[in-house]
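User: Here's a protein and a ligand (zinc ion). What would the complex look like?
Assistant: Let me lay out the input and then the predicted complex.
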Amino acid sequence: DAGDACVKFTIMHTNDNHGRFWENSDGEYGMAARKALIDSIRTEVRQNGGETLLLSGGDINTGIPESDLQDAEPDFVGMNAIGYNAMAVGNHEFDNALTVVEKQREWANFPMLSANIYKTENDTLVRYFDPYKVFTIGSLRIAVVGLTTEDTETIGNPQFIGDLTFTKPTDEIKKVISEIKANDEADLIFAVTHMGHYADAAFGSNAPGDVSMARELPEGDLAAIIGGHSQVAVCMESGTNTYANFKAGDACTPDQQNGTYIMQARDWGKFVGRADFEYFNGKLNLASYKLIPVNLKEEDSNGNLVTIGNALTPNITLRDTLKVFQDKIQPTLEKEIANISEKLEGDRKVVRNQQTNLGHFIAAAQKSSLDDVDFAILNSGGVRASIKPGVVKVRNAYIVQPFNNSVNKVTMTGSDIARYLGSVATIKVGSGGYAQIINVNMSVNCDKPTEPAIINSIGGETFSPTEKYSFTIPSFSVAGGDKYPNLRADDNNFQDAEIFVGKLDVDVLRQFLESESAKDSENGIIDLSPFEPNIEDITY
Ligand code: ATP
Ligand code: ZN
């Protein structure tokens, strides 16, 4: 038991690293500077008789080719060097096969925690990760429980999470808390989550996040939630449920719901959250809270970039270690493969709302990567960035297509194609499932997604419901991602679908950029006119 002594401890936190082990070209963030900051806080806290814990709200994976192409090894190496004590498992930890997740678990010198992810083993559900870990801070025992958004079930890659079950975090934490209490394992319980902070519990189309969970638990059960996923700076207008207009360098008041503090530090390690707690007479007090910028910059009145707050000198040992990972991959990524004179449009707000030249370019690349394909479908959420006019590098292909999907060829009879397109082409505009489609002229009824599409022509030829047609589509969508019909399920409604697994999507895009560029033997400039979407092709 913690007794009567006052225990001082500091929780530091980051979340949504997304491959940002290295600083950006302006020298902002980066793990070497993060380590310098965290080391200095540790020293200061220790000198004042306190102890520290360092937590991550998850989503270590996916975002930068230097990290993605090395299975985020540099990020885990960096986290070890910085001395993370635990992390929540994020949805993007499942962008890779479970073999990669297991490799990362080996690399990490700290537990990857999630109480609500189960795996079926010998017909029984067992937790795939440790649900919590108890840390001893002086005379105080602090349990840290990990939780993951249940949305992972629908937004994760179905090819990789098929064997996993994601239960409701709030139900799960109730179980874990009663277990911890029953066994008298801890004096205080914290959660490290990847569920999202939505002010005033307005979670919209997402699964319920940290605020909903805090409100549902008995007051006093959970001291604080260290979160992630929504990538916000959780800094509130004091005493309200609305976000303050927080800018780097400002003071920050974390959220508090039903007695539970909720904290989150935007993303990429741009900030380190620092919460100084005091525990005395069975009561927890938050003495101070800060979101400390990690070498973030702003323009001064002369237009020069200046560091916000204290300039941090990156830890040289960690920088050297990470530099090896960073440099190793540059020759591959910097290779120039094409030229374009217009933007290829992949900004999420555009590509998830309308047909774009990049959507059609990738669809055309996938279509041409396999023989005898009539048309192509591409989930717009899989298009992760635009490509600017000018020189195109291999790097661009990896940034646009980071997910390691294979291009699949699906063959069905015309009447099934009409049913399939009826449901796929009516998925909500604005969502990642909104489809980029080439070589089909049709109309669909968005109010009745169960109705078959009325197809006029495929590849310019009159459509026949009895003829067989083939289309390409990413493996993610074939397996039911974005709620597309799961063509791999035993009980799907397209029993005659034949599926052929082709090449990796990023390789297909890269080769298509090269071959389209080669058509202009003088300047290598790709003629983009064939990929301009024809707005008359699909009527809704
Ligand atoms: P967060 O980083 O906060 O977890 P997120 O990436 O899950 O966000 P979005 O950026 O909205 O959320 O992207 C979700 C969309 O990304 C999905 O609707 C889907 O279309 C696409 N997507 C996600 N994973 C894959 C994948 N493995 N392959 C292809 N597309 C994917
Ligand atoms: Zn996430």
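Summary: The two ends are 65 Å apart (CA to CA).
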